[in-house]
């Protein structure tokens, strides 16, 4: 399961951060904030997975 | 040493604090059957608020000095961090995000003085686990779909268990997602129909799957008195076997309708599949629960709680009866400070404890 989970979290963190950084249109505050919250949480869970099962 | 450094840094950080940074804490003296311990939980939190949103970030180390009668006992340290956000995104749509992290000895997991959580920790006897990790994430939304129809949806992911091989042999590491969906429909001003769907999956440990669908009816007998009756079905799956289980719920809740009302009473019966919060194992729990709180003036309040029931663990086929009784007296000292004493008894593990506590928190602090 870890073989799928960690790469998925890494990809999700990068994708959500990129989308949040690009989101600049007026009136899209909700979408931008949700993308940043999603990026922060996937980054956090990536860290937790590394803590419980360090690579190698 | 790390513990003393962490605590020494708190006043320095608070002195240099920008607006919104707050310092608080809890001190608790606990007398168990054979030991005495002093626990300290300083808490540093940051609050940001706008008309539509509120964000809280916090960090709290946990310090335990056990066996005060003996000199040289090592100091034990745990860590807690939390993030909580609430956003009124648009009329009729509320968004919530909640993240909690606990890391440390097993007895540091219970960082709240809430009676039910303290009782649970005593019963589980988690003290021998030296490095326990617990992390919970929850995202939820509350939407008013129609004038009479409200939706609440939540998705969460949690992880719990020991970090070192020794700790993992005592509390296996397990994790998994949890999804919940509620629909509330107001039939009349006094009657509400609620539909609830919950599903969870546990990987690792004594993992399994549970699913629960419940339909309930709530009726307000008076502005402060609510009754609830519900039923449904659940599915619990552990390993190759799956079991269908009934869900039943009945309760009577008397809540203060205005500030100054003295008595609050909650009584409930429930039968439902659940997930054990420490091992992740699916279980079927039948429970009777009663809570009584009484406010004696503005400063003094008393709370009593009794829970009794039976748990059937579906994977290990264990059956456990439990009885937990607690009582707490709390005195408000003003400016966010409260002091009190509590007594807890757990029959299942033949444990009990008495403790005195002092809490110092800003008056605007939200209950967590």
In short:
The complex is a heterodimer of chains A (56) and B (368). Chain A is mainly α and 56 residues long.
What does the model show?
The complex is a heterodimer of chains A (56) and B (368). Chain A is built from 2 helices and no strands. Chain A is mainly alpha-helical and 56 residues long. Chain A is elongated, with a radius of gyration of 13 Å. The mean pLDDT of chain A is 82. Chain B is globular, with a radius of gyration of 22 Å. By secondary structure, chain B is mainly β. Helices cover 8% and strands 65% of the residues of chain B. Chain B has an 18-stranded antiparallel barrel. At the A-B interface, helix 2 of A face strand 4, strand 5, strand 6 and strand 7 of B.
Question: Strands, helices and their partners?
Answer:
The complex is a heterodimer of chains A (56) and B (368).
Chain A: H1 2-22, H2 29-52
Chain B: H1 2-15, E1 21-31, E2 36-49, E3 53-66, E4 76-90, E5 93-104, H2 115-124, E6 132-146, E7 149-162, H3 165-170, E8 174-186, E9 191-201, E10 209-222, E11 225-238, E12 241-254, E13 263-275, E14 282-296, E15 300-313, E16 319-334, E17 337-346, E18 351-360
Antiparallel strand pairs in B: 1-2, 1-18, 2-3, 3-4, 4-5, 5-6, 6-7, 7-8, 8-9, 9-10, 10-11, 11-12, 12-13, 13-14, 14-15, 15-16, 16-17, 17-18
């Amino acid at each position: 399961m870890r073989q799928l989970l960690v790469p998925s979290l890494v990809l999700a963190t990068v994708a959500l951060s990129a989308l949040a950084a690009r989101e600049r249109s007026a009136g899209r505050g909700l979408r931008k904030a949700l993308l940043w919250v999603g990026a922060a949480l996937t980054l956090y869970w990536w860290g937790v997975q590394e803590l419980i099962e360090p690579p190698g | 040493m790390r513990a003393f450094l962490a605590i020494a840094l708190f006043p320095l950080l608070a002195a240099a604090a920008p607006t919104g940074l707050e310092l608080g804490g809890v001190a608790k003296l606990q007398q168990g059957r054979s030991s005495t311990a002093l626990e300290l939980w300083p808490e540093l939190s940051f609050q940001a608020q706008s008309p539509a949103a509120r964000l809280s970030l916090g960090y709290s180390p946990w310090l335990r000095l056990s066996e005060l009668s003996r000199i040289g006992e090592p100091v034990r340290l745990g860590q807690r961090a939390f993030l909580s956000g609430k956003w009124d995104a648009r009329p009729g749509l509320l968004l919530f995000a909640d993240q909690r992290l606990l890391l440390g000895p097993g007895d540091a997991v219970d960082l709240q003085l809430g009676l039910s959580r303290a009782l649970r920790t005593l019963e589980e006897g988690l003290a021998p686990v030296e490095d326990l990790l617990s992390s919970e994430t929850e995202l939820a939304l509350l939407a008013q779909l129609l004038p009479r129809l409200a939706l609440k949806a939540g998705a969460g992911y949690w992880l719990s268990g020991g970090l070192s091989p020794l700790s993992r042999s005592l509390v296996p590491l397990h994790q998994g997602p949890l999804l919940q969906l509620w629909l509330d429909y107001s039939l009349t001003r006094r009657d509400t129909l609620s539909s609830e769907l919950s599903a969870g999956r546990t990987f690792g440990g004594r993992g399994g799957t549970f699913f629960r669908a419940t339909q309930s009816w709530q009726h307000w007998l008076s502005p402060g008195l609510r009754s609830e009756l519900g039923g449904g079905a659940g599915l619990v799956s552990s390993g190759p076997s799956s079991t269908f289980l009934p869900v039943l719920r009945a309760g009577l809740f008397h809540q203060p309708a205005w500030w100054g009302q003295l008595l609050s009473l909650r009584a409930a019966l429930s039968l439902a599949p659940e997930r054990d919060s420490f091992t992740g194992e699916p279980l079927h729990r039948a429970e009777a629960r009663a809570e009584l709180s009484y406010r004696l003036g503005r400063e003094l309040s008393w709370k009593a709680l009794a829970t009794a029931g039976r748990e059937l663990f579906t994977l290990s086929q264990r059956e456990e009866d439990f009885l937990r009784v607690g009582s707490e007296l709390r005195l408000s000292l003003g400016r966010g400070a409260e002091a009190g004493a509590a007594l807890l008894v757990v029959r299942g593990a033949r444990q009990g404890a008495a403790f005195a506590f002092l809490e110092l928190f800003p008056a605007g602090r939200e209950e967590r």
